[in-house]
Design goal:
The complex is a heterodimer. Chain A is mainly alpha-helical. Chain A has helices at about 1-15, 15-60, 120-140, 145-150, 150-155, 160-195, 200-230, 235-290, 320-365, 370-385, 385-410, 435-445, 455-460, 460-480, 495-525; strands at about 70-75, 90-95, 105, 300-305, 310-315, 425, 430. By secondary structure, chain B is mostly helical. A four-stranded mixed β-sheet of chain B has the order 3-2-1-4, covered by helices on one side. Classes of the chains: A mainly alpha, B mainly alpha.
Amino acid sequence: MLIPLLEHELQNLLKSRRIYLTVTMFLLLFATVFIVRAIDFQKQINQYNDDVMLNDKDLREATNYSQIKPRAIQKPIIFSIFNEGFKIPRVITIQYYEPITNTMTLNEETNLLYNESTQLDITFLITFFLSLFILLISYDSVNGEKQVGTLRILMTYPLKRQSFILKKTLGVFFFVALTFTIPYFLSIMGITYHFVNVLSLNFFLSAIFYWFLVMLFIMFFSLLGIFISCCTTNPNRSLVYCLLVWIMFSIVLPISWDYIIAPRLYNDTLTQLSQGYRDKIMQAQRIMYNDVPDEANINLVGHMNWSGRHFFYETNVAGWKATHEQHHRYQMYIYENYFPVTRDAEQAYDEIQRKRIYMENVRNWVFFYNPIVLFNSLSAQITGNSREDLLRFLHTTRELRDELVNLGVSEEWLLDSRFFIMYELETDVMYNITDQYDLFMLIYEYAGGHGPLEDFFNEIGEERAVGYLQEMVSQQERYNMVLPRFRRYEQPIYTFSEIFARILQYLVVFVVSILVLWVMTWRKFLGFDVR
Amino acid sequence: MNQIILMKDIRLMLKDLKFQIFFLILVALFILSAISSAVTYHSHNDEYQADLNRFNELVSNENYTKLANLINHRRLNVLSQPSPAILFSSYSSFPDKINSRVIFYSPTLDKYGQSGNGVFRLNWFFILGILTGFIMLVMSFETISQEKRSGTLRLMSVYGFKRQKILWIKYISYMLLYLIIIIPPALASMILFFALTGTWSAVFMWKFLLILLISIPFASFFVWLGIFISMGKNYRNAIVMIVFIWLFFVIIVPQSASIFGKQLSPIKTTTEYRQARSSAFWDEFQAWNEREDDRAGSNTPENLEIRAAAYHTSEEKRDVVVQKEVEDYMRQTMMIQKIASISPFAQFEMISEIVFDKGLYMLNYMQDTTKRSVNQITNLMIEQDSRDENSMHLFYGWAEMDSNVLSFFYGSDKVAFSHELFEQPNLLFVTEIETDDAWGKMVKIMMRLLPILILNLVLMAGAVVKFERLDIR
């Protein structure tokens, strides 16, 4: 009995012009959004490749340790075509002691004049449009039948009211599910074909979970539409109710929480936390720039500078040994004082992010009955572009940074002047600090290609010059640079159970709310006057 | 007789459940938007005060206002102050602050508050610009079809009413209804906001009233649209149609504007811009070094003049690149705005920018002000330095560092640039930004209103013609 009724219901739906209109609009929107986002993704992939090449080039061409700034580069998440989620920075440059919170750079086309707050992805399409379409299809499914008189006839047949409601729900559900599933799987196939090089298991896992979530979403709204249709006998009235419910669910309630309730509850804590973070950053800056003791201040002895053609050591005092020692003390000072504070700053930054994650969780519990909020939050968990993933990215990058720093300490280049010194292969001369300023200038002139070596010998006397050059050669071994072997950043891969664990608790809430709504609808229809 | 029908129409609408529900929602939203805007206003104001305090601290620090230090990357702040305009819209797409180095116009942009990732925000623009269109459509979508179904339309034509008159009465009654549902809650919201923030000002009250007045043609557009659609055969299909039209104008066009704008007017990536800036500087500096035998790289006393000139021109080159970058951003922003302005409701927000001195409209004036201030400060610094006998009058960013070298190696009393304190440190913090006068603004507002007025006329003409031909049997 159920199957013929279901067939009948689907046929009925297909006859209505309203349906064609909504389906056409939805498909048009789906296609537009998908194409725009796929083009955008292609751009992201190109940028990613550029970033990787640039990173490798920089590391290859580094001529001293201080120039080694490996980047942790996050591969664009392919499923972000469907769900943009929380925008995680793609590139983090590792700069030894710099805190990995504010060195985040987004190598994107960021328009600094215009800060867009748009979200035009398939998730937005589902939460905002699909919900409305379902309600527009189902708002008169029960009371409409009553109005035309078919409901009364149907009830004279040996058909349970429960089955009638089930058929109505399944009819709307299957119809909308098909409307979504066909373009969805076509687009998945399109992606598989076009982006075959960047596909990963994550993508297919996300695709399956996402589809399942959308099915739950459609089920909830189909039931909601039918429930409202049972609440009043007048279809016009149920239409207005549906629109109201939709506006409340999709706009009014979420923004009331975001802009009124949440700021009231959490603004003070967040301000305190960000103040704590800023204080740590300020403290670190003071250590770096203001509190440096004279015996460790490299500005007093000289530092690396750029002549416009190459780096060179600029010295303000005589004595290269003294300068090197000063540099060593500076590095020690930074390692012992600056580094720990920047780590505290990182902790403080994480606190802020954790508080925000907590706020998002509270929001999900407050809106447990609102599938729009749940869907938005869960889809980011599925795609891997939630705030938790930002924290994960930061943590991994910090681990890599710590490894690099430890390597520098154990191999003894980070804390000594080799960190700054550079060895020029072409001229075979080290830009070094000489024991006298004029001698340094001569060497510098020579290295810069001005004046022959004889001049240099004549100027300072042969014996001294030979002695000096010999010393340089003997030191060469010590200053020779071997690139450290550090671990590169690797993209995290989620397993099925990991994703499942991430969304489990809210998934249960989702399913329970659908069951509750089903019971409510069924009870409501039992009391519905079919005459 | 006309009056009687009008009153009857209005009374019927007031009794309508749709109207009552929408009215309640609007009241709630207006009140909530006052509260939420007040929260945002307070946090923006706190940030503004913190900026002000930080600036005062800096100005009282002699190390900061020393001329030689001032030319080394010290910055000028031009800020658009937080104002009650936030009740209308947060204008969060555009920056509120421009920072620039005091010796060059090299803008960096910043804003108050965090940029939210939500698509909607609770404020007057959301209510008047997004929701009211929807409400007016839902209220009016069955106006003619209902009369037709119940037979009253036929009756009226039997009584000898001109069709045009019937249409006008319908229209006027909907517009009156609009005023009824909008004005009282809007006024309550305004008063509540002023009370919560303590920012009462007559100027802003008039501005809010003006914006309510300007919202009328936008509501009227949707009323005409609703009436037009209600003449269709199947009014339930009509509701689907109108919801799509509303979605198209209010959500899809503004939302997709930035995506299409970015495709049509692309900018470079941040890395490319950074490289362009850096190479503009170093290419020029290197060229100087090659021309002048590496003297630009040297900070010995005899080379200092060349070095200063090389550094300064290199910086100028870099800042030209920075400005080009900002021009690129501006070009893209204008493209996004152009696409968005297809939607009358994006136009509405643009008009409000003129009324409240905010957003893109304000940004242009902020840029002008910043350029002017930079020139003024630079001239004053050079002028003040020229009076200092100890100075070598070399105006470049490394002046102070090279002065240290001078004194260390050569025991020189001379400094590259004066060590005196800047005489007018208050110029470094600008909050007064001059925009158009009232007439200029009025002209700009009228220019923006013109398309929506024309759309109103077109729809009205369409509705009249369609109604004349309507089969009312």
